[in-house]
Amino acid sequence: MVQIARDTLRAALSQAMVEEEIPRNVAKLVRVPKPRRRKVKAWSVGEASRFLEHAVTSGDALYAAWVLALTLGLRRGEILGLTWDSVDFDAGELYIDHQLQRAGGEVLHRETKTEDSEDFLPLPELCLAALRQRRQQQQEDQKAAGELWQDVHGLIFTTRYGTPIEPGNLTRAFAVRIRQAGVRAVPLRNTRHTTGSLLVAMKVHPKVAQRILRHSKFTMTFDVYSEASDEEIREALQRLSRGFGPSSPEPPEKP
């Protein structure tokens, strides 16, 4: 709180200097101790697998959201801002071009402004299958809602009536699913740390993983890959396969 107060005051005084109201920004001279942040240990591959298994077997409408958070490291606003136009099922690609944020008392659907949003992310088969399942769920919701359906953006994740999901509600839904699945609690914002382990488990190529994780240096990705044992990878793949099982797409027929 002390650091936030100092930063806020420093920003205000900087603007006052721009407007020539004061000669210098004295807040820049203040030094505050760096806060000690409690580090939350990321899920292991096994924990993430158990969580996804429970979500898919429970018919969780947000299952695809959890898959994207854990396998691609997407942030909350990025997940909720995804539209069906962002997904290319044929090419197996996902464009992170919008985000959903609460600002000024309302939920806003905005374009992302980062350079990363101009590129695409390759989608593992697990993600594609989960998104196909989500599309079927949404079609059923729209049919049940009838004229009450209100989706105007083509969002992937909506309420039963097509309205955007409140960002805070997604966080709460994640916490509820964790308790029901009986796995160790972690914040939704920390799932990105688990992404690396899951990419290892699905045998995604390290260079592809570097793009997904958006690591600036390949050595960071290599460190993630060097931490997982072959036995852990093999066990995780089997658990993911069993958990997703019936919903995975059928292989194409041979000509």
UniProtKB/TrEMBL annotation:
Pfam families associated with the record: Phage_integrase (PF00589)
Keywords from the named record: DNA recombination
Domain Tyr recombinase: 38-238
Protein's name in the database: Tyr recombinase domain-containing protein
